Amino acid sequence: MKPKFLNEMDSWEEEVDNINWRNISEEIDQALIDHLAAEVGFPSYDKLEQASELVVDDYYICHRSDGMWIWWNPQTYASEDPKYFNSQSEAMHFVADFLDLNEEKRQHLKVGFDQVNQTKQCNYCDHEFNPHDPSRHEWDREAGKLAYCSPECAMDAVMEEMKEKS
Asked: Which residues contact 64 (CB under 8 A, 6 or more apart)?
């Protein structure tokens, strides 16, 4: 007869043996990119990615509603924080140096940066959103003029306003 602690140890080892490490790794990766999105001000990674422009490999640039430019990479986020810049020229200078671009390629970079859409901040939940997101056309008939990131935030804001008036 085994002592009780050995039976518990066998049970614990069996549980560890049955862990699906692949799923845990995927869950950790998902949690990291969700944290990245939250850090940058977005409700989800998909919304962050949709509001950003791919520059090279897995490096993206995003232009937030407060004027900040953010350089980020989902693959290196665990070890490298996003970089924040106060202006387009500051961000472009960093990226051009990072990529070791010659003058001609710096001009191409400028053209690309000029095409990056600036996000807006939701008046209800304070998350950033891309006002030019094509999925907004389903509910935002004013083509990005509404100051809400989603139909849920727009509806919640209207409901709160109605409650306040009554």
From this structure: 40, 41, 70, 118, 119, 128
In the chain, the amino acid numbered 68 is M
Q: Which long-range contacts (CB under 8 A, 24 or more apart) does 63-66 make?
A: 63/88, 63/116, 63/117, 63/118, 63/119, 64/40, 64/118, 64/119, 64/128, 65/118, 65/119, 65/120, 65/121, 65/128, 66/121
The residues near 97 (Cβ < 8 Å, ≥ 6 apart) are: none
Tell which residue, 36, 39, 82, has the closest CA to residue 61.
Answer: 82
Looking up tokens 């990766």 gives 29
Higher pLDDT, residue 5 or 49:
49
DSSP state of 81: -
pLDDT digit string (tens) for 127-164?
999 998 888 878 777 665 678 988 899 899 989 888 88
